[in-house]
């Protein structure tokens, strides 16, 4: 282990020991909507970064850059170690060990679900009034970002999933929060409270870290629109949240924004219409709103892909360029999920094909959590190590 990396890790440990005794400075002005004093919105957790801005991922046209050099997302999904870690069963040592393994295998970016289904770490009542996150949630995230800095792994933080809206038939409804989340997303004032009391504090607390790459506003909202078990909510409501949240994030930080679309069908004007295009998102911000419609955009696309989609006529990103796949090419595009155990090509071939075709990264599913048949780190590592060896200057442009 290099001396500089050892120093960073020691600094990360020291930071995590000081969180409980520090107070958060007053936050900047919020948009209209309910705010709550005396709760987790004014959390005692304070995060102090070890970074100085030199390693932040920025967008330059259709590329990612770090320090003026191209970065290619040699990534993977590390969604959870235990479901609902943050504010729940989070373990510093388990996450640190896992991120160390990610770095050692050439993985430079991880997609982490910081809220898996909204039932842990979130203060939301049955009517969808959102008050904030718990103190433990913020503390766990502070430790996560210190781990990311020590191990040089950028984080895409996924704040919602279709799971937030899903009625699980195997669970007593009294123990679920799906109805509350559906109410939150369909009532504009409740959406505003969520943005004020969670999204803005999230980027204000941790946005100083170069390794806070992006916020993924929802995992696969396609199923919230299509499936009865997830409410079949309208895109107007879903995308209004994305528009407002994106505008707020851009107003309050340098953190990038995306939405993890489950398939290109709703991410392409060539298929069903791009529900996160600049034009559509800005159209959902009314004139005179506290949200700036010019900042209501995603910085990059993060479309997911599984083999059944090719059979449904939605193409194959490992055979088609982003343009041929149906996506706009005015910004970076990553394949935000794909199986870690592909069927027709090896994962090494898929990562290299995506690189050659002009994608800006791949994030296979998944390196942590239970084995769901799509592989784990041992399945993904050969591909990420091969890419790192072939394109090291683009995987670690700031140095490994």
How would you describe this protein?
The structure is a single chain. The chain has 14 helices and 13 strands. By secondary structure, it is α/β, with parallel strands linked by helices. The protein has one domain (about 5-395): Glycosidases (TIM Barrel, Alpha-Beta Barrel). The chain has a six-stranded parallel β-sheet with strand order 10-9-8-5-4-13. A three-stranded antiparallel β-sheet has the order 1-2-3. The longest helix is centred in the middle third of the chain and has 19 residues, at about 190-205.
Cα(first) to Cα(last) distance is 11 Å
**Order of SSEs:** HEEEEHHEEEHEHHEHHEHEHHEHEHH
Overall structural domain count = 1
Instruction: Work out the helicity level.
Output: 25-40%
Strand content: 5-15%
Identify low-pLDDT runs: 1-10, 12-29, 35-40
Classify the secondary structure makeup into a structural class.
alpha/beta
Main sheet attributes: strand count, strand direction, barrel closure: 6 strands, parallel
Average pLDDT works out at 91
CATH superfamily: Glycosidases
Q: Any idea what the CATH architecture is?
A: Alpha-Beta Barrel
Give the beta-strand count.
13
CATH topology heading: TIM Barrel
H/I helix tally: 14
Shape, principal axes of CA atoms: globular
Instruction: Give Rg in angstroms.
Output: 20 Å
CATH level 1 class label: Alpha Beta
Side by side, the strands of the main sheet go: 10-9-8-5-4-13
């Amino acid at each position: 282990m290099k001396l500089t990396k050892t120093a960073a890790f020691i600094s990360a440990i020291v930071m995590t020991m000081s969180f409980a005794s520090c107070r958060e400075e007053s936050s900047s002005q919020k948009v209209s909507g309910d705010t709550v004093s005396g709760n987790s919105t004014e959390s005692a957790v304070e995060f102090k970064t070890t970074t100085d801005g030199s390693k932040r991922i920025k967008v330059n046209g259709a590329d990612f850059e770090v320090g003026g050099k191209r970065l290619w997302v040699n990534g993977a999904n590390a969604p959870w170690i235990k479901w609902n870690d943050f504010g729940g069963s989070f373990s510093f040592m388990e996450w640190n060990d896992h991120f160390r393994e990610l770095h050692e295998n050439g993985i430079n970016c991880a997609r982490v679900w910081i809220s898996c289904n909204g039932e842990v770490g979130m203060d939301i009542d049955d009517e969808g009034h959102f008050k904030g996150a718990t103190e433990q949630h913020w503390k766990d995230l502070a430790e996560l970002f210190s781990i990311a800095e020590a191990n040089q792994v950028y984080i895409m933080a996924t704040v919602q999933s279709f799971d937030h809206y899903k009625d699980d038939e195997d669970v007593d409804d009294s123990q679920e929060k799906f109805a509350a989340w559906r109410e939150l997303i369909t009532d504009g004032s409740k959406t505003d409270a969520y943005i004020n009391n969670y999204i803005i504090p999230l980027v204000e607390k941790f946005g100083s870290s170069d390794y806070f790459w992006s916020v993924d506003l929802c995992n696969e909202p396609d199923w919230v629109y299509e499936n009865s078990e997830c409410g079949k909510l309208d895109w107007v409501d879903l995308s209004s949240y994305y528009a407002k949240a994106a505008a707020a994030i851009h107003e309050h930080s340098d953190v990038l924004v995306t939405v993890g679309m489950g398939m290109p069908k709703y991410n392409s004007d060539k298929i069903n219409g791009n529900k996160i295009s600049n034009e559509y998102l800005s159209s959902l911000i009314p004139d005179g709103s506290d949200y700036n419609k010019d900042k209501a955009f995603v910085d990059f696309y993060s479309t997911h892909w599984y083999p059944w989609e090719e059979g449904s006529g939605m193409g194959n990103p490992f055979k088609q360029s982003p343009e041929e796949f149906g996506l706009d090419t005015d910004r970076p595009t990553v394949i935000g999920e794909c199986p870690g155990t592909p069927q027709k090509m090896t994962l090494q071939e898929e990562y290299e094909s995506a690189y050659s075709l002009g994608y800006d990264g791949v994030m296979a599913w998944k390196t942590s959590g239970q084995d769901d048949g799509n592989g784990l780190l041992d399945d993904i590592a050969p591909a990420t190590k091969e890419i790192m060896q072939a394109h090291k200057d683009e995987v670690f442009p700031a140095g490994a």
